[in-house]
Each structure stands twice: as structure tokens, then as C-alpha cells.
Amino acid sequence: MFGDMFEEEEDVGFVSENKTMNGWKSRKKDTDPPPHRAASNLSGIKNQGGTCYLNSLLQTLLYTPEFRESLFALGPEELGNLSDKDKPESKVRVIPLELQRLFAQLLLADQLAASTSDLTDSFGWTSNEETSQHDVQELNRILFSALESSLVGTSGHDLINRLYHGIVVNKIVCKECGNISERQEDFLDLTVAVKGVSGLEEALCTFYVEEEHFDNDNLYHCGRCEKLVKATKSAKIRHLPTFLTISLLRFNFDFTKCERYKETGCYSFPVRLDMRPFCEQDNLPDSEYEYDLFSVIIHKGGCYGGHYHAYIKDIDQLGTWFSLDEQMTVVNLPKDSTNQDHLLELGDPVEILKAILVQVGADGVLVDQLGQKLLEKVGVAWNKRYRKQHGPLRKFLESHPDVFLLKADGTRVAVKQVRHDCSGQQPNKSKIKKAQTENCKASTSHADKTETHSKIPASEVHWFDFDDTQVRPIQEKDIEKQFEGKECAYMLFYRKSQLQRPAEARGNSRYKVPPDLLEEIANLDASLQNQRAEFDSATNNIEVHLHLGPEYKFGNGALYPASSQKDSMLTITIDRRKTIGDLRQTIFQLLEFWKGDMVISVAKQLPVGLHLYETFHEDHTSLHSLGIMDGAILFVWNGSQVCGVAIHVGEEFEPMMLKILCPTLKSKEMVQFIEMQKVFTRNTLLASARNNLALSTGISPEELTVYYRKNLENKGSTNWIAYDAEDGHKTLADLRLKDGDTILISDQKCCNLSVLSSNGMPITVADRSWLQVKNYCGEKFSQIAGKTVTIPVTMETLVSEIKANAIEKLKLKDEQGKLFLYFSVGDSLHMTPEMEIVVEQSISVRECLKLMLEKAGLTGECWHLRKTDWCYDAGEVLKDEEATLAYMKITNGETLVIMEGRLPPKGFLMLPVWLYQPPLDSENRGCFREEQENIANKLCALNIESTARDFSLRQYMGTELEYVGNIEISGEASLEDLKTQVLTLPLLQGLSVPSMEFLRVWLVENKCPVKILRNQQQQLSKFKLGSSAEIGIQLLQAEENLSSTELLLRLKMAVPGERMYYPAEEFVWDISKECTVRTLKQKIVQHYSLPPEQIEIAKYFPDQFEWMPMTSWTQQVSKKKKKKKLQNLHGAPYYLKDGDIIGVKNLLIDKNKDFSTVADDIGKEKLKLEGNSKDTRHQATVQQGGDASENPEKQAVRARTRRPEVALSISVADFR
């Protein structure tokens, strides 16, 4: 549960006497030297807190050889020297210089990861930019702009344009005169859509192949024709760059929820991209259009945060790539001490952990124990060495699923088994061993390392995953995993396929690196080498205190020096990686007088003297693996005797000194205590100690009582409690007595007597009281049912202690599989008393309900069970009554509610049915009056007197819905079957319906019809009706069979000169071709036979009493986009659906464009009054209860407001 919170804790109290943590020399984290390069031979970049986006882009630029070499080609004569940057009036171009230094370190320095702090300082960034995450696409543009500004006036002034610059041309062609209007746009990266397209090529076709047509009411003004004409618009790429950067628009804005979201759907992109279809000129050679993918920047997370890393192709083959089979050979080390010590030199935590787990075996180890094993093998805890770079240990294991296998719900970890090739071919061990060995060398030997790549064919180029400090080899097919999901591709980098690298660049990390940078990196590696040597010495050299057996005596249960401490102890310094045999040989050389066998044991200094715990027998085991730390105490002796006395070794023989208080009555009101000290071993029985004390005090063992002390809440009082007779068979360790504790002995019976000692300390000596506990566990325990046991108690004994004691003495076990539940009847728990019941976890929900009904005295089958929500109101229905309580995740102590009403069988739906008619106008009101009176009479006949069933014309006009009953129907039934069954309800049997086409079925939500159910033969299960679904039935005057592409609206024509409307009429609109404001307006114009420019339409929102004018002006803005998808009226801001009211204004006779009515004004005023009333009540509550009464959870939510986003920028000096 606590993960690696306690990883660094280790019980080494018996080893060390120094006061540093874990018996180890305290070191500052900053003094640890950087680790060597990993087996991949590629360097990562440190994350400064939120700079993963910067790291991914920098690695991409580094492994763009043409960019890297063009940057290296700029010398100090053009850029200046960093040593002069602080001089006044100096023109030092700091950003490209720092970028050169960083690239050189990443290529050559022998370190696991490089730092970008100098580079970000040159950007003018503060800690805010370094710890806040920004968008990598934005950084790409800003960094290129900063480089362009920094290189003004140098030979590299065109570096960015030469490599990344492209041109797009937009053309509009007039269909009448053929005039072409052309506009040219420059780009450094192409931004393509993700939403609504399946991949990159389709997105490019949308922008650069498809044409947009201007016609109807969306015409183009031609400069030559000087009028609005029909035209076509297209875009083509006129000039392709050498390196094509593509940004994917993964982040969009949801206008419904008013928040950003990330597109995580599948979006494919090719490894080789042909750009010919998207270019203006298509007659060039194929090589001019073909691009190869070489980098993919990946984003993991959401739109408000996440993590970036990059998949990059190693074009120059600078890294050492190996498959998973070869990776396993790195850690498949023999189980001997030599290789265990060799682990200390490994820098990659993946390799270290794998080596440890391989030695453990296939069963693995507990995750919480892996940190301890790492400390034993390496000597540094995970939190001290790796947490800052790699995060918590558990998350690090989870982030490497290809290497580590988490088992048993994530509590155990093992190395994932890799299936080796059955052909008998062995992995290239020599290559891996070469890379592993060279990780420990300085970068001055990098030129020699490149010889190992001679075995790799020139055409074989591999991919690596650059994730901050970690660089791992991957397969090219792994790129397909980034097509979709929360972790998906975000930026794509392509290079022209015709670009070829020179042979001397392959495998040569020094290629084109300036000499001054080579010298700087050589000095850096030399400094790192010295740091590692000093660190190795400081880390592995420990001081050991040797206590010599011939100089010691044994007495009072412990060892003590025969003469002075100085003569009996010897302190030496030794490398902890050496073995016990090496230590013994060193001691032999120092102690020339020693003769005979030499045994080394671990010792600990106790108040009574020295005690021995563990003896080392294996000479080939290293000191570190045995837990011998800095300041350890070791005892050197012959292994059997000290001064002729046999010595018992082990924790069970550890001596403890106890203080013994023996009270004597000085007077009637005064008790005097005699204090003495006694030494016992931890494994001494209390009975033996009592006999020993009886001999010392002269008290008869039968009359001697031993008490232990328990402090009361009142600091001045101490309660002495007598040990039981059964405690006599327990050891002092079992009784939790430790060194220095005090016990009280007495030879008389003391009963609840308060006495005062001679020093004025009030002490209460209390005997125990006794409780009798009888077993009522029932037939299951009939053999011991009725048995009674006696439990000793005091006033401070907890009930849980009594229960545990009783279970132990009655030889009972806690009942497994039992659930203690609360339950109540009804839907308001505070009004009905709660009851309790104990049931088996394995019984079904139906059986549990039956038991609860019996206990509640209820009968019948029209009941069901529900869970309770966080407010203890009736919540989720337990629908699967055949499922067990364990399967339904019912836990101990949970509260359930018995509700009236039978659940439908599995696969059936219980649907409430409402009779629905839209508000009636004066013409149709009489047609339904007779039907209304008929239904009202039936309601009275059924004795339904609720005001909710009042079917007066006024309420019928206002609510539009009238409840008529429930139906139970199979999910496999059709919509036609549903209509047929609805007509069997008692309240609807009198309705005359010629056919099912005269009935319209609505889906009702919050007592409002929202959707028409279409297709008579469609199964109800296809409509995905939930358990809380409700339906409305509407009687029609004619047959209707709406298709899925037809939308039912209600049109209201405004009365000229009045703030009111004519009665609504239904209007069916076919949206199969287009669902836009323009097409809706055209259909309404045809319906009313009015000119299109003389009408205005608006949608009505009845809950807000608002009218929203519907215009098509947004289509004139975004001509480049697909109008169908962006202007769909089903989306924001109109959300058009079945039954919506559309207001129509005829501007020929009514110039007023205000759609609101008097009723709307009244409704808005009511809403305003209700809002003011709520505010008044809230203010009164706050004044009465104060701010402290506010829910702490709400205060916490208010406090967790998202930080405002800050624009990213890079500061550049003026070099013009």
C-alpha cells in the first residue's frame, strides 16, 4: 500500500554503532557522480521538472545529422566565445553555442544523461518555464525563430530555411471568366487535422487534393467580373522542404462542455510517405517526393498535462542496438560473488534490477523487498540514487512492461521470460558484452567503440526510444502502437529518401565535431573519471571495529574487556566488496600473535556488555552482501570459548538488564521500594525468572507475584498489573520486556490499594478483575457450545482484546465468508429504523433479500434491493438477483435498502409510460377534449386521487405528459411490439388507433421528450435503453414512419406586430445530405413560399426562455474546412433534436427581429427571482454557520484551480 516509501529502512542495529543512517556514511545527493552510459551507448537528457517536451525535440534535432553538422560548422569567429558572454557590448550568440555544447555532450560524454540547464538559461527561462509543461509544437516554432534571430549575419543565417522551409499556394478559380487568384504561404511545419480522418494521407488529401466550391448563397467576388460568381478553391504544395515536419492537431475544444479534450482515436501514418499527389508540380523524379520517417514525438496524457518522449531512427548508427533476447544475456550472470560485486559498476537501473531478479529466480520477489535487495547489492538505496531521475520504484517497474512482469496484483515482480530462437542461434553476446564493458570507460575511447558496429550492415538502421534519461532500443513495428490511445503520436518528422550519409559518419560520434568541443568533452570525461574514482573510494571503503577475543572475559551474561577498551579493540579500513576470507587474511597479517582457528562474528554493544549474534563461515562471500556496513562491530575469537567459558551466540540469548522493585511497608501510610538489577536472557521463561528472584529475595515462589507497569493517561500515575499463571510458560521476549524495563515483585496480596512511596510518587497497585465469556456460536460449534472461559481484565482493557482472548481460549476462528450488513425498508433511511443481519458472502442477492424480508416481517415478491449512495439514499439497483453478494462487491458493514417493486427478469425492461401531446392550440383543443374526459373518468374509476393524476385541461396544456402505467417487455421485442403492449394498459385500452403507424414513441428524460424511436422492426436492445429509461406515447392524426435521416421540428410563425406566435405545426426535414443552417432555411423558405432574404429563424430553449437566432455567417469564415462537419446543427451551439421549436419571422411584413414573447419575459423574471431567493438562502446559511461550516471537500476543490497557462518564449539578443 505504501509502495517504496520505506525502501531505505534497514535493521542494522546489531551491525553498526555509528550515528549515520543505515550504518552508512552520510552523503549529499549532489556528490554522486553521473552514471555511465547505458548499454545502448546513447545519452539521455535530464528532466528539469517539466522539460520532457524540450528533451524530445532536442533529441530529434541531434539525430538530424544535417542540422547537427550545419550547427557544428559555425565556429567561434562567427558565434563568439561563451567566456565573453558577460562582457559589456560583446556579441556572443549564446543559444547556438550552448546548443553545440549540449550536442557534443550527448554524442561523446560518458554519462547517462546530460543537463539542459545551461541551454534553458540562455533562453532566459526561469524556474516557472522549467517546471511547467508546454506544447512541443509551439516550442518547435519558437526555437527555430530564436535560432534564426541568433544566426543573423553568420554563414548559418539560412540554416532553418534551407532545411525546413516549404511553400503552399492557395488558388481560387472563377468559373465564369477563368481568372485565377493566387496567394502563397511559407511554412516550417504542416499542421494537419486528426478529428474525422483515419490517417495522415487522408488528412493531406483533405487539404491539398479536394477542392472547395463556392455556390448558392456562398459565392465568391471575382475582381475581374466585379460580381459574385461561382468558384473553386484549392491548395497545393509548391516547394517541399528537405525535412518535413508534421504537427497533428490532437487537442480540440468541446463547445458542449466548454473544455479542451484530446483526440485519442486511431490515426495511422506511413514510414515512407509519397508527397506527389499533394504538390503543384508532379513531373519531377520520384526521389523528389519520397520521404522517410525518422522521428515521432509521442504525448502521453491529457490536454492539461502529460509526458513527452520520442521514437528516433539512429541514422548514423551511433548507438548499440540489441533485441530483447540479447538484452537478457546482459543480466544472465552466474550466481557468484564476483558478478554480484560487478553490479556495483552498472549505471542503468534496468540492468541492475534485472540482474537482481535473475538471481532471485522465476518466482520473483515482493516489490517492497526489491528496494532492500538493491541496497544490499549496490550499496545505495533507490530513493537516493535513482528516484530523482526515474521516479518511484513501483512506477519505474510499471513503465517497463517489456522487461519486468508484475504478478499477484502488482505485489511481486519478476523478469519477463523471453522465448529464445529454437533454431539454436545464440544472440550476439560479444556485442552486448563489449557495450557493457565500454560503459565503464571514458569517452576518449569512443573512437575504438565504433569498431563494434562494423558487423552491422550499412542498410540496417534501428530505432530507439528517447524518454528523458532513458534510451531503449525498439522495433520499427512498435511505432504502430502509437497510432491511438492516451499515449499516441503528436509530431512526425520526415527526411527526403534521397539523402545519403557518408561512410565515415556511420558509427563515428566524433564526425564533424569541432576540435574545441572535443577537447572540452575530453576534460569533462577526465573530471567524471576522477569523481567516480573518489566516489568509489568513499562509497566502498568502510571502517570496521574488531574486538579481540583473547582480550575479553565473560560475566553477568555478556562479554567485557579484560583490561582497557583500547587494548581490546582494533579499527581497520577495508573495501566492502572484499570477502570474509580477505578480511581474515588482513587480520592475520595485523595480529602476528594469533594462533589456531579464527572465527568472525557480528557483535553489538549492550548496557551489560558485548553480545554475539551471527558467525560468518563462507570465505567467498563479500562483506557488503553479509550486511557489514561502515562502523560495524566484529568479534574475533576461536568460535567456541572466551577465557574457557562457552559462549552462546544468537538473538535468543541476548542479555537484558531488568530493574526489580521490591516494596517494603515502612509504616501504615508509607511504602519504601528497594531497587536491584538482574540480567536475564531473552529466552528465559517467566517461571524461571520468578524462581531466580525468589532465591534472591528469600520469598517463597508460591507467594511471589510479578507485576509489569502500564502508564495511565495521567502522567503521574502508574498501574502495576500482575502476570497470569499462564504467562509463566512464556519467555521474557514474548512478554515484550526489553532491556532497561522495570518489574515489581511482591510477597503479599494487594487489592486496588493506593499507596505512596517514599519519594512522593503516587503508585496504584491493582489486581485483575475477571470476566466469564460463554460460547453461543450455534450448531456449527456444537461440540463446544455453552463452554465458559475466564478472561482477566482491567479497567484499561479494550473490548477487542477481550474478543481476541476469548477466541483464542475457546479455540474459535474468525468466521470466514461472513458479511455483517445493515438494511432498511423504504427510500428514506432516516425515517425507517436500520436492522442488522449476518449472511454468507456466497449467497445470491435473491436469497439475501428473502432473509432480510423475513427479519423485517415483510411478505410478497414485489421487492428488490438497492445499494446506498454517499448520502445514504437509495442508489444503484442490484439487478442481477442470481449473482452472489461477493460478485456484486457487497462489503462488510454496507447498508442496503429494500425497495417496493419487482425487478424485471434478465433481458427484460421495465418502462414507465407517459401519454404525450404537445401544447394544444385553439383549433385542435376540442378534438382531444372528449379523449381527455374519457381518461379522466378511468383515473377516477381506479381510485387514483393524487394531484399528479389531475387531468384538467390547464395541467394537460402545461405539463404535456401524463403518467399511464408501467410495462414489462423483453429487450428482444421490436418497437412495434412495444406499441402493441402499451395499448394494453388500462388507461389506454379505450383509445382508437387504426394501426401502429398512428403512434409515435418518444424517449423521455427528466419528463421531457428528447428523441423519437424509429423503425418499427428495430429491437429495443438496439436503442440501448438504460434501466432508468422512460417512454412517451403520442397519438397522431395520420400514419408516420420516420427514417433515421428525418428530423421532426415544430415551426412557429410569428404574428406580425405582436409578441406572439401562430399555433405550432410539425415539420419533417430530411438531413441525409446536409444539416446546416443554410439548408434548413432553404426548406423553411420552400414551406412558406417566401423569399430567402426576407425571413429570419431562431431556435427556442424553453428551460431558459431564450431564442437563439440561426445564421450561417460562420460558414463564410472557414471556407477551407469541411462545412458539413463543422456546421452540423446537432452540435454546438444549437444541439438540434426531435421536437425542437423553430421560430420564423417574415421580414416583409414585420421588421422586428426580436423573437421573445411576453410569456418569455415572465419566465425570465421567475428564474431571476428563484436565483435571488437561492442566493439569499445561501448567504443566510453562510452567516449562520460561518465559513467553517462549508464542506471541506468543496473548499479543497475550489483550492485546486488550474493554473493559468503562460505563453512560451525564448529571449534573443539583437544581432542585426
TrEMBL record:
PROSITE patterns: USP_1, USP_2, USP_3. Residues 1-12 have a biased composition (Acidic residues). Residues 43-497 form the USP domain. Residues 1-44, 419-453, 1169-1203 are annotated as: Disordered. One of its GO terms (biological process) is protein deubiquitination. InterPro entries: Papain-like_cys_pep_sf, Peptidase_C19, Peptidase_C19_UCH, Ubiquitin-like_domsf, UBL_USP40, USP, USP_CS. Gene3D superfamilies: Cysteine proteinases (3.90.70.10). GO terms for molecular function: cysteine-type deubiquitinase activity. Pfam families: UBL_USP40, UCH. It comes from the Eukaryota. One of its GO terms (cellular component) is cytosol. Residues 1169-1178 have a biased composition (Basic and acidic residues). This is USP domain-containing protein. The lineage of its organism: Eukaryota, Metazoa, Chordata, Craniata, Vertebrata.
